[in-house]
Amino acid sequence: MSVKLSRQEIFEKLQDIMIAINEDDREKIESATESTRLVEDIGLASVGMLYLVIVLEESFQIKFDDVGTATFDTVGKVIDYIEAKLS
Fold it and tell me: Any idea which architecture 7-86 has in CATH?
């Protein structure tokens, strides 16, 4: 699959995935920006981060390298990583 997604399309898909993972934080996720912190601002715990990586791999048909939560401290960094993997 070599469909080129825009940064905005990746962002919207990421938001949908995060809402599906954590419906309780829907309001925080919907108002997120690229500088929103996943742990501090949205409240994604380590288990949530692991689940997020699994769902992102399936949704974007990419494989995450050995990355930790420190790699993805903001929404923008997740988008950067997905963009790099898709290119």
Answer: Orthogonal Bundle (1.10)
Domain regions of the chain by residue span: 7-86
DSSP helix/strand/coil, 42: helix
Q: What values do phi and psi take at 64, rounded to 5?
A: -80, 135
Token digits for 49? 């981060």
Place of tokens 């905005």: 8
> Two tokens at 22?
């954590």
Convert the pLDDT of each residue in 4-17 to its tens digit: 899 999 999 999 99
The 3-state DSSP class for residue 51 equals helix
For the question of whether the overall pTM of this predicted structure is more than 0.70, the answer is yes
Closest CA to 5 of 13, 18, 16, 52: 13
Backbone torsions φ then ψ of 67, nearest 5 degrees? -120, 150
DSSP structural state of residue 43: -
81 in Cβ contact with 71 (< 8 Å): yes
